[in-house]
Fold each of these.
Amino acid sequence: MKSLSVFATLLGLLAAGPCSALSTVTLPVDFKPPPVFKNTNLVHVISVEKSYAKEQINVLVENVASEPQAEYFLPFTAGQIARVGGLEAKDRKDDTIGPFAVDLVEYDGSNDVQYYRITLPTPLKAGGQYPLAISWYYLDSYRPLPASIAQDEQQYLVYDFSLYAPSAYPTLKQKTEVKFSTVNIPDYTTTTGPGGKEYPEKLGSKMLYGPFDEQPAGAYFPAQVRFEFTKPVIHVETLERDIEVSHWGGNVAFEERYTLLHRGANLSSLFNRVKWAQSQFFQPATMALKELKVPLQVGSVDPYFIDTIGNVSTSRFRSSKREAMLELKPRYPVFGGWKYPFTIGWNTNAANVLRTTASGGHVLKVPFLEGPKQVEGVEYGEVNVRVLLPEGSENVKFYTSIPDSSIVETSIGVHKTYLDTAGRTAVTIKAKNLVDEHRFRDLVISYETPLMGTLRKPLVIFASMLAVYAAAWAVGKVQVGFSSK
C-alpha cells in the first residue's frame, strides 16, 4: 500500500466481495467423477525438505468429452483429507491466472475416497488441452523411526506416499520426483520400470521415479522413504492472533498465542542438562528446538515474550529501516513430544498499515500470518485471526489471499473491551492446515467510522469524569457532624 496503484488494487479486491469459508458441494452418495478428462503428461513433485510435506502436480489435461468441461476432481483418502492444507490450482504456464475456485465435495462420509473440485476459469472445449498446476501440503506427514532416540543421536523420519499421483482420470505418462534436505537416505522403495530400468535414480538430494506407462484412474503404488532430519519437527496446534486498531492512539497492537509441539522422535532417556550445556560449546546438529526467529514488519516496536511462568528474558529484538527481527529462546530446549506454549506481542504505528480513502473510509492491510521463519519450516493446525476495529465501525468488508481451501469460518461480530459502550467491531477468520510458506499473505479490511462512533469514547470518558467531579462536589457540600442543640 505504499503506492496508489497498490492501493487501488486492494480496493478492487474488496469491491469484489469479502472472503468466505471453504464452500462444500453436496453430491449424490453414489457420486463418481465423470470420465471427461485424461492426463496426457503429468509430473508429480514431492518435497520432504521441511517439517511438512509439500506435493505438486504439473499436468496437461485434455478434454475427451464431446462438450466443454470446467470441473476437474482430485481424489484423496479419508485419512489424507483431514491433513490437507493450502490446496491451490493455477495455470502452469502463467502464474497470474488463478488461483482457481476450489470446493470440497461432500457425498458419502463412509467412503474412503474424498474429492476436491477445481473449477477452471473457462470451460475447456472438446479435444482441448490445459496446463494445470495443483499444489497442497500434508500436515502430520512423518513418523520418526526409531520412535525414541538418545539426546545426541540423529533423527530419522519416514514418509509414506504413492509413486502414482492421485488422479480421478487415466494418465498416459507420468513421473515422480522426491526432494530431500539431506543426502543421507538409508531406506527407500525401489521398483522396475519399462525396459527393466531400476528406479529411483538418485541425483544428490533428489530421487526420480519413472516415467511410467499409462495408468488407470485411481492407480496407487505404495512407496516409502526414510531420511535423516536433524532438525526439529515444529507443529503449532493452535495460533490465536489478535490485531487491535486504535485511531485515537495512532497504533495497531499485535498479540499471538502459540501452543507449540515438537513432533519428532522422543527421548529414550531423561533429559541431561549438564550434557546439553557441554554440547553447546561445539554446536552439534540437533533435533531440539533451541530458538525461534520471527521477522516482523518494518517499524514494529515494544515487543514482549511471555510463557505460562511469566516474562521470558532470553529474547533479542533488532530493528532498522530495513528489517525488524524478534529472536526468541525458550526456557528449555524443546525435544520430540514436548510442548511449549508461549505468547508474543508488539506494536506498530497505524500509519504503516492503515490508509484513509477519498470518501473518508479506512483500509487496513496486515499479514494474515506472521510467526517464526525457520529453515526446517513450521506447520499450523489451526489459526484464529481476530481483528478489533474502532468502536462504531460499520460497512466492513474483508479479503485475504490465504487459500480458500484452508478457510473454515468467517464472521463479523462485536467485542467489548475497556471503556467501550457499544463494543468494537470484530472480524474473525478461522483457518486450518497452514504452513509458514503462507506467511505475509495479505489480510485487507475496509471500514467506515461515523462521526458519532468516533466521538463516542471521548464523550463517554468526558461525561464519566464530569459525573465524578459533580459527585465529589455534591459530597463535599454534605455537612457531617452533631448539632449543638
Amino acid sequence: MSKNTDTAPSRLPVAVIGSGPVGLAAAAHLLERGLNPVIFEAGSSPAAAVSAWGHVRLFSPWQYDVDAAARRLLAGTGWQEPDAQALPTGNELVEQYLRPLAAVPALRAALRLNSEVLAVTREGLDKTRTGGRESTPFLLRVRDASGSVTDHRVRAVIDASGTWNTPNPLGQAGLPAAGEAEAYAAGVITAPLPDVAGRERDRFAGRHVLVVGAGHSAANTLLALGELAELEPATRISWAIRSSSPAGVYGGGDLDGLPARGVLGSRLRALVEAGRIELHTSFRITGFKTSDSLTIVGSTPAGEVQLNVDLLVPATGFRPNLDMLREVRLDLDPAVEAPRQLGPLIDPEFHSCGTVEPHGARLLSHPEKDFYIVGMKSYGRAPTFLMATGYEQVRSIAAALAGDREAAERVELVLPETGVCSMDLGGSCCDAPAAEEEAEASCCAAPEPAFLGIPTGLAHGRSAREES
C-alpha cells in the first residue's frame, strides 16, 4: 500500500467522491473558490452511474439540470447549452453536459477514474479519538483498477457517491429474503431500470417478467414491457406491490399536477385494466427458489402465494452505502439515514408532496468538521432527489470551506411556486380530499407543471398513507 504524505495540511485538496452531476458541480464550485479538488470516480468514465440508467428520461428540463458554476466553467470551451425546456435522457445528460464538463482541463486534471473509495477516516485517528481531530487531515483509502490501494490525505471531504450501487432488498422489513442473494447470483434478478426496449431487449422478449415496486421506475419498466409485448406477444408481465391498491401509482390522470406523470399513470392503469399486466397487491416477498426459473414466495392476506417467472426487475428504491464512513463521526436521521437536520424535511412517511427548502452547509453538517454528504446520498432512503437542490448544496459547501460563511448561509436557489413533489413519479400527490377546503390546502389545489430531478424509486410502494 502506498501513501501520499508530501503535502502540508493547508495545501491539501478537497476530496469529492463521485463524478455524477452533483460531484462535478462540487468540483466546479471549489475551483471558483480557489480550492483544489480531487475527484474519485469508481467507474471507468465520468458519471458512470448515470450511464447505467441512460435510457431513462428525466422529468426536469435542462434549465434545472446544469449547475451555474459548471456553466461558467464550460463557457470558454465552445460548449453549446441544450434547449432549456427539453427533457434529457440520462445518456443525453452525460453526452451533452457531464462529459464535456469533465473534459474541461481543470476538472480533467482532478479526476481519478477507476478509483473506488474504500474508507474515509482521519490520519492516525479512529472515530474514538478527539484530541486534535479538527486540525488533522482526512485519509481516504482508494483502490484502483489493478487492485492497488493508496491512502490519500485531503483537507475536507464531499461525498457525492450516490446510492445506485445499493438498491433496497426485495424482502420484507428492510432485509433480503431467503434465497435473494442466490437469485441475484443466478442472474434471474436484474439490475434496477433495465433497458427493456433497447440494448437488453433480447433478455426480456418472450419471457415472463415480474416487476416489484410501486414507484416511477416500476411504472416506466412496466410500460416498456407493455410495448415489448406488443411486438413480442409471448412476453408476459406480472407486477407485485406491497400496498393493497395501485391507485397511488396511477396518480391524478388528467388532473395531475405533473402532466407527464399523469400520462404515465393513465397508460399503466389501461394496461392493468386490459389484463396485459397481472397485478398482485398486498404481496410481501418472503423467499426465493432458483432453478431453471425463479419462484417468488410471498405472503398475502389470503395466505402464501408462489409466483413462477423467468426474470424479476427490482424497483424498490435505494439506500446509502455507509460502510466506507464507519470511522467518520456522522449525525444521521434515524429513519431515512439523511443528515439529521435534513431528514424530517424529506421523510416519505410523512411528506407526500410539498417543497424541500433549498439547503446547504449548515443542514448538511456532521460532528466531523469539513465532512459533507451531498446529492442523492444526502437524501438517504428518501425516494426522490432534486438535482437543482444538489447544486445549491455544493455551492453553499464550497463557500463554507472557503471561509465565506455569509455566502454559505445565503439561499440562491428559487424553486417553482408549485413546489416539488417529494414522492417519486409513481407516487400520488392527489388522494381526492373529501372536503373542498382540504383540496385547497392540498398539493393538488393548483395543477400547474412542476419539475423533478432524479427519481430513485419507492420501497414497494411506500407512501404517506398507511400500508394495508
Amino acid sequence: MHDRQHSSTRFPVAVDAALREAGWQPGRWDIRQAEEWADALRSHASPAGHQHAVFPAAVEAWAEFGGLRITASAPGRQIAPAAVRIDPLSGLHLARTLGDLGRALETEVSPLGAEGEEQAVLAIDTEGRVYSIDHTGDWFLGQDIDEALATLVTGAQPARLTSS
C-alpha cells in the first residue's frame, strides 16, 4: 500500500481537479493559520458560555485545506455539488449547536467550514469524521475529510443523522 499522502490516487479525479483548482496540492500544510484559528475558537464563548472543542483532527484538516474555496466542475451524481469553504471561523457562533451535536454523537465536534453561501456549516469530530449541519438536519459526509470532500464535490447524497 502506498503512502496515501503522496499517492496520485488519494482523491477521485474530479475531486483532485477541484482541489487543485482551489489551490490545494499534496503536502500543503499551513500550521500557522491553523493555530490562529485554534486560538480564535478557544478564546470564543457564546453568550451562554458554550465553548469550542479544538483537537488534532480538526487542526490537521485546517492546516491542509484551510482557506480553500472548492467548487465542482461537473454536475452532481445525486444532488447538486456544494461549493465548500474550509474556514472554521464560519462556525464561530455555533459553539452550542456543535456542542449539542458532539454530545449526541458521544464525541467532540469542531467547526470545519461552510457549504454554499453559508447554507450549512461543516464540522469535524475527534476521529476525523465530517458532518454538515443545515436547517433540515444533521448529515454525515464521510469517515474522514477525504471522503467528505468527495461526497461534497461529486454531489453524492449524504446520510442523515437520526437520533437513536
Amino acid sequence: MKNYLRPLLTLTILGASFAAHSQTIDSKSQKILDEVTRNYKSKKNSYFKFSYTSGSGKNLRSQTGIFYSDNTRYKLKIMGTEQIFDGNKLYNINDEDKEVTISKPNDEQIHFSPLSYLDSYKKEYDVTYSGKKTMSGIPVDVIKMVPVKNNGLKNVTLYVNTPQKKLIKLEQITTSNEVAVIGISDYKENQKLSPNLFTFDKSKYQNYLITEL
C-alpha cells in the first residue's frame, strides 16, 4: 500500500518533463478541451469520486477513491491511503503502515486534478478528435492524444461530456501495454468546505511514524 499512489499520480503526468516539440492539434479537440478547462477553473472548488484501474491482461486491479480540490490545493483518498497538498507541502498518510511522509513536491507530484489532464494536451502530444461514443447512456466526445516523442506512453484517450464541459474518463496505455484508467463520477462544485480540509493536523497521528524529507 505504501507506493499505491505513485502509479496513480504518474497517470496524470503526461510528458511534463519533456522539451517542446512540433505537434498537431485539431481545432475541434482544442475547442472542447479549452471549454472544459475554463469550466473547471471558474469553480471555487471541485469534488468527485473516481475508479482507478491499472495493470495488464488478467492482472487488472480496480479501486475507488475521492478527490477534493480548490485549484491550488487538494486532498485524495484511496484504499486507506490519503494524500494532502496544502499548497506548499505534500503529505502522504498511510493508515495500514501508520506512516506519514512529508515532502516538498516537485512539479510532477502536484498535478492530480482534472486540469492536469486538460492542460497537458498543449505539450508534446498530437491531439485528434475521434468521434462520439455512448457511455452509460451519456454521449461523450472522444479525444486521442499520441506523444510526439517517446515518453513511455502509446496513447492517452480522454472522454468528455461536452454539454456539461466535464472530463468523465481517461485511459492511458504505456509502451509495455500497461493500462491505467480513471473514471470520474459524482461531481460536486462550489461546496462549503471545511477550512481545515486541506490542512495536515499532526495531533491526529501521534501513533504514526512521521518522516519529513
